[in-house]
Design goal:
The complex is a heterodimer of chains A (about 280) and B (about 170).
Chain A (H helix, E strand, L loop, with lengths): L1 H9 L1 H22 L11 H16 L2 H24 L13 H4 L2 E11 L7 E4 L12 E4 L3 E8 L4 E5 L6 E6 L4 E6 L7 E5 L12 E4 L11 E10 L6 E7 L8 E7 L2 H14 L1
Chain B lengths: L2 H20 L5 E2 L3 E2 L5 H4 L7 H19 L4 H24 L8 H4 L1 H23 L6 H25 L3
Antiparallel strand pairs in B: 1-2
Helix pairs in contact in B: 1-3, 3-4, 4-6, 6-7
Classes of the chains: A alpha+beta (about 280), B mainly alpha (about 170).
């Protein structure tokens, strides 16, 4: 017993060191597996307030760009209203009548970016809307220019978004001209470019073609811009293209985002769950 | 340590933290060089401080930075590591000089000894931090470049701040 006490006393620095390291390790591992509300991150009220304060100064320098983005978006929306008022569901067969609940399944909440990371290996964005505004984890987030990410944590007034600049985040996207579906995934280097994988090499892919979110996506509305094809390469021994997209959203200037709520997501997921149960 | 010194050093740690959280968080050169200037708060504490305090201060500093950058525990782990290794390095420097006490600081140590003290610790801290963040092994070259660039950048920043601070 005395020996034990002696051992602890002699190695107390090392033991405390190991203890603290294990505790930090536990925090990291837990954050990867446990997706519930945690307290020690930027969705914490006071932390977010502080960051918002430091962000507000920088925002004034970007007002010009914010304005032009909003103006562009207005133009795009006006064009969309015009096309929609003329025809519904243009690529659907003649007999298909869309359910009105299905058509209006997406609702949008505007939120302001409080904190924004672009240069790390795993990037997160903090916004100033939380569970009090009806935001829940796993909702999609878009901006005036394109896809932004997915909600990960919510506190009462703030949320943290896994940015598309996060290697574990994938978006099912579609190339507009070649009508080909693939997955967009950030390789982890440059915040301007993103990879698109799983596009079969037996179709033609055009340079400069737009990649938008696909119809099979349940988080994002279809047709939201992801990026433009910058380069297409193909390895002789592979069946898929290596496509690099130039991201539509400039993440360094992100100021306002829209959180997308899919009101039928729960229903859709429950159906899928039943499929899983039966197998 | 007198009360005055204690207050002085705690203010310094807080200042470095504020600097990190408000300014250095957004400052990245060429997408490679990051600046984690807050570790100066651990590096510049006086040599005779208790090792136990040092570990806990290191953890507190790292954890604060973690909260503000959504890294959950990575900064804490890296900072605790250098807080643990720091006394060994100081001890080694004292022995090689034959002195029985050492004052940490660019003026009292001289630029050579000061760099020989901070550079290994910054390098260890950054290596640990970036290697923990790495997602796939294909990024290793990119990460090594980041470690090297960030080590230089942080070192430069700490030396500059140290030169301009008067104590």
């Amino acid at each position: 017993m005395l020996q034990l006490v002696d051992f602890v006393a002699r190695n107390r620095f090392f033991l405390v060191f190991i203890l603290l390291e294990v505790f930090s390790g536990w925090l990291i591992v837990r954050s990867n597996s446990y997706w519930g509300a945690t307290y020690f991150n930027t969705s914490n009220y006071y932390v977010a307030k502080t960051l918002a304060f430091s962000n507000s100064a920088r925002e004034y320098t970007r007002l010009g760009e914010i304005n032009s983005d909003l103006a562009n978006e207005n133009a795009r929306l006006n064009a969309l209203v015009a096309t929609l008022s003329q025809k519904n569901a243009k690529d659907a067969p003649a007999g298909y009548v869309p359910d009105s609940a299905f058509n209006s399944r997406f609702t949008y909440t505007v939120a302001k970016v409080v904190d924004n990371e672009t240069n790390r290996a795993n990037n997160y964005i903090t916004i100033d809307k939380g569970s009090a505004d009806g935001i829940e984890p796993d909702m999609g987030v878009i901006s005036a220019t394109g896809v932004v990410g997915k909600v990960r944590f919510c506190s009462k007034n703030y949320s943290i978004i896994t940015s598309i600049l996060h290697p574990q985040f994938m978006v099912s996207s579609k190339l507009v001209r070649s009508n080909e579906i693939g997955t967009a995934k950030w390789p982890g280097k440059d915040p301007n470019f993103i990879d698109m994988v799983d596009v079969s090499r037996y179709t033609k892919v055009y340079k400069g073609d737009s990649a938008v979110t696909s119809n099979v996506n349940s988080v994002f509305p279809p047709g939201i811009m992801v990026g433009k094809v910058k380069s297409v390469t193909v390895h002789p021994d592979q069946t898929f293209y290596n496509i690099i997209l130039e991201l539509a959203t400039d993440f360094r200037n992100l100021s306002y985002v829209y959180v997308v709520k899919n009101r039928q997501l729960g229903e859709q997921e429950t159906l899928k769950q039943r499929l899983g149960d039966r197998q | 340590m007198s009360l005055r010194e204690a207050i002085q050093y705690s203010l310094m740690v807080i200042l470095y933290l504020l600097l990190q959280i408000f300014f250095m968080r957004n400052m990245v050169l060429f997408n490679y060089a990051f600046c984690f200037v807050y570790i100066a708060g651990i590096l510049i504490l006086p040599a005779e401080i208790s090792r136990m305090y040092l570990l806990f201060i290191g953890f507190a500093i790292g954890f604060t930075v973690d909260i503000f950058s959504n890294t959950f525990g990575m900064h804490a782990a890296a900072t605790v590591l250098i807080a643990y290794l720091r006394p060994f390095l100081i001890h080694y420097q004292m022995e090689s000089k034959g002195a029985d006490r050492v004052d940490i600081g660019i003026r009292s140590q001289g630029i050579g000894a000061f760099l020989a003290y901070i550079l290994p610790l910054i390098f260890i801290h950054h290596s640990m931090l970036f290697l923990m963040e790495i997602n796939n092994f294909g990024m290793i070259l990119h990460t090594l470049l980041r470690i090297a660039a960030s080590t230089l950048f942080t070192m430069l920043m700490i030396v500059l701040l140290e030169l301009f601070s008067r104590r």
